[in-house]
Structures are given as C-alpha cells and as structure tokens.
C-alpha cells in the first residue's frame, strides 16, 4: 500500500506567556502534590538529636506555601491572558458557546475512547474536549486556592492569606477543609496522568507536533486544514 503524503503548514499557536504559564503550572502542581502528600502523611524518621535540630518537615511546609503563592499568581496571569492573548489562548476555547464546540467534543471522544480515526476538522489549539476539561480544572484550581489559603490563614500574617479568613468560618472546621484540599490533590494527580497520556497519544495520531509545540509554540497542520480555519476566521470576522 502506497503511503499518503500531506502538505503541511507551520502555524504559530502558543505564545511565550502561555508556554511559560504551562511549565510553571506543571512544576508548581508537581511540587504541591509531593509536599502536600508528605504534609498529610509525614514519614516517621528516627533521630538521635533534638527535634529543633531537624527542620526537614518545616522546609517541606515552607516549600508548599511558597509554591502555592507562585501557583496562585501564575493562575491569575493566565486568566488575564485569556482576554488579551491570541485566539488560541482566548477564554472562549474553554467554555462551550455554540453547537460546533459540542460537535467537536463528540468527535474527540470517538478518537480517544472508541479509537475511531477523525474525518473532520479539528481545532488547531486546544481541541474542544481538552478545553472543556481545562475549564473544570480551572474550577478545581479555585477550590484548592480557597481551601489551601483558608488553612494557611491561621498561621500567617500576610495580607493575601488574611483575605481567606472567611473560609474556615464558612466550613465550620479545619478538618473539612483539609479533606477537601486532600481530595482535590488526587484529582490533580489523576488529571496529570491522563493529560500526559493524551498529549502523547494525540501527537502520534494527529502528527501536529503536540509535544514540541509547548516548547517552541509551533504546530503543523495540513494545507487543507489551514485553509478551512482561514475560512472559519473570515466568517467569524463578518459576524
């Protein structure tokens, strides 16, 4: 069987701020999950010296809290960039606003779950399903920030932490906040595993440079696909 060839067009998709956000976010979540797990289940170490001579657990808590600040302000920046960035970073890529969005979600589900080869046009940036899942992930970010800083508020004099003084009062007790915070940690661990798998899978199936695009910002799409997206943009601009 003769191999089919396609003319490819190199398209710049991910701007530098989006790429920086992605890797800072990935590193932050990794550190927060590791340190958060250790805080929830600290291992028992036997030392011959005094407790104050061993400050390893204090450093774990410090790294967790410091990373949480980086995570929060990085996330706030991404929300801002969803309004000022290019069309691939726009907030509309994460919320279903039309029938086309839902149709592409079903199309991606057929590829990812039913293993049916795509015959339609796919988004150049985030596909619709990925964008929709990221929307719920952003909501999970908000829950983690609220519960995390709600727990941290009692031990900090920082003005930002004090903004969450209402959270323990609303929850009624710290135990509920800890359980919610811990539960969502496992959500992020599961999300990361699935996310990494699907990135490699779509890179193999679509051949668009999914993995390398988050390093350099460029993707590769078929010439026909490129012209299709140009027509779609012209239709949108006329509305």
Q: Could you give a quick summary of the protein structure above?
A:
With 239 residues, this protein is mostly helical. The chain is 67% helix and 4% strand. Helix 1 runs antiparallel to helix 2, helix 1 packs across helix 7 and helix 3 packs across helix 4.
Describe this structure as you would to a colleague.
By secondary structure, this protein is mainly alpha-helical. The chain has a single domain, classed as Transmembrane di-heme cytochromes, Chain C (Fumarate Reductase Cytochrome B subunit, Up-down Bundle), CATH 1.20.950.20. It contains nine helices and two strands. The protein has helices at about 15-40, 55-85, 100-110, 130-150, 160, 165-170, 175-205, 210-215, 225-239; strands spanning about 10, 220. Strands 1-2 form a two-stranded antiparallel ribbon. The protein starts with 7 loop residues before the first strand and ends with a helix. The model has no long low-confidence stretch (mean pLDDT about 85).
* CATH domain fold name: Fumarate Reductase Cytochrome B subunit
Say which CATH homologous superfamily is assigned. Answer: Transmembrane di-heme cytochromes, Chain C
Give the count of helical stretches.
9
Helix content: 55-70%
SSE string, helices as H and strands as E = EHHHHHHHHEH
Radius of gyration (CA) equals 22 Å
Describe the largest sheet: 2 strands, antiparallel
CATH class categorisation: Mainly Alpha
Main structural class: mainly alpha
What is the global morphology?
Answer: elongated
Low-confidence stretches: none
Please report the distance between the alpha carbons of the first and last residues: 45 Å
* Number of E-type strands: 2
- Which CATH architecture? Up-down Bundle
Largest sheet: spatial strand order: 1-2
Mean pLDDT: 85
- Report the portion of residues in β strands: under 5%
Domain tally: 1
């Amino acid at each position: 069987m003769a191999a089919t060839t396609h003319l490819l067009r190199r398209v710049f998709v991910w701007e530098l701020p989006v790429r920086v956000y992605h890797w800072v976010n990935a590193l932050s979540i990794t550190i927060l999950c590791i340190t958060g797990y250790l805080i929830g289940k600290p291992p028992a170490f036997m030392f011959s010296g005094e407790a104050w001579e061993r400050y390893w657990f204090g450093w774990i808590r410090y790294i967790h809290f410091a990373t949480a600040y980086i995570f929060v302000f990085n996330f706030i920046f991404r929300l801002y960039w969803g309004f000022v960035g290019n069309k691939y970073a726009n907030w509309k890529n994460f919320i279903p606003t039309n029938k086309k969005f839902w149709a592409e979600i079903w199309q991606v589900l057929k590829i990812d779950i039913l293993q049916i080869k795509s015959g339609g046009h796919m988004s150049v940036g985030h596909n619709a399903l990925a964008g929709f899942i990221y929307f719920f992930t952003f909501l999970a970010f908000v829950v983690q920030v609220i519960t995390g800083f709600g727990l941290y508020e009692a031990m900090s004099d920082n003005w930002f932490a004090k903004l969450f003084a209402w959270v323990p009062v609303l929850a009624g007790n710290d135990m509920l906040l800890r359980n919610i915070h811990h539960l969502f940690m496992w959500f992020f661990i599961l999300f990361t595993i699935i996310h990494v798998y699907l990135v490699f899978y779509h890179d193999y199936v679509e051949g668009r440079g999914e993995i390398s695009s988050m390093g350099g910002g460029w993707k590769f799409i078929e010439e026909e696909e490129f012209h299709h997206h140009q027509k779609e943009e012209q239709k949108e601009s006329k509305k």
